[in-house]
């Protein structure tokens, strides 16, 4: 099953997957609620390929609802977001792998096969980075950033990339009010005084990844 809010991307992935003799895309969804409705009715799905950034809600949040419906359904995340930033959070959310959309076709197919075998799939370089971060990052900083919800972390990431609230609203297809609420919550959780502190903290945090 494919879940991505861009129909052309779903179509392209479906074509690539259906070229494999032993694989077939049986269903698709454009957002989280639609995916949940399909999963409630379809128990024959072997693997879910889920985009991290969906309209209205993060894929990292939708995965919780999906796993409550089908705890054994393996999830492979796909995303345009940098693997070095999101892979660890994806695994913590319950995913079995992470593939960037920019990767060649064979990487996606390999990832699907590895996850179906019960393995975890990350690129080799990212595996090493994730393990190193877990071992070396200061506990206090990690615990603080880890307290952000998936949607807050998406906003935090885009702030670190230099986007303002209006741009983030357009990129995530969410209201300005929602984005501003996330920014307020992020500042409180990270104990930051103002917008300047938030921008500096986010920029530095992601430059260190």
List keywords for this structure.
209 residues; alpha/beta; Arc Repressor Mutant, subunit A; five-stranded parallel beta sheet
3D architecture notes:
There is one protein chain. This protein has a five-stranded parallel sheet with strand order 2-1-3-4-5, with helices on both faces. It has two domains: 2-132, Rossmann fold (3-Layer(aba) Sandwich), CATH 3.40.50; 138-207, Winged helix-like DNA-binding domain superfamily/Winged helix DNA-binding domain (Arc Repressor Mutant, subunit A), CATH 1.10.10. The chain has 209 residues and is of the alpha/beta class. The mean pLDDT is 86. Helix content is 59%, strand content 8%.
């Amino acid at each position: 099953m494919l879940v991505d809010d861009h129909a052309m991307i779903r179509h392209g992935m479906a074509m690539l997957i259906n070229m494999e003799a032993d694989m077939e895309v049986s269903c698709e969804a454009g957002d989280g609620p639609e995916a949940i409705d399909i999963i409630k009715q379809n128990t024959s799905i072997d693997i879910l390929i889920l985009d991290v950034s969906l309209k209205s809600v993060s894929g990292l949040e939708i995965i919780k609802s999906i796993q409550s419906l089908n705890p054994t359904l393996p999830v492979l995340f796909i995303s345009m977001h940098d693997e070095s930033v999101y892979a660890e959070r994806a695994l913590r959310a319950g995913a079995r792998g992470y593939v960037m959309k920019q990767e060649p076709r064979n990487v996606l197919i390999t990832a699907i096969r590895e996850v179906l075998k019960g393995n975890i799939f990350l690129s080799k370089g990212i595996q090493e980075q994730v393990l190193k971060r877990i071992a070396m990052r200061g506990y206090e900083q990690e615990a603080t950033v880890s307290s952000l919800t998936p949607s807050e972390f998406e906003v935090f990431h885009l702030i670190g990339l230099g986007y303002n609230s209006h741009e983030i609203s357009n990129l995530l297809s969410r209201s300005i009010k929602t984005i501003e609420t996330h920014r307020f919550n992020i500042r409180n959780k990270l104990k930051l005084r103002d917008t300047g502190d938030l921008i500096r903290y986010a920029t530095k945090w992601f430059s260190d990844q």
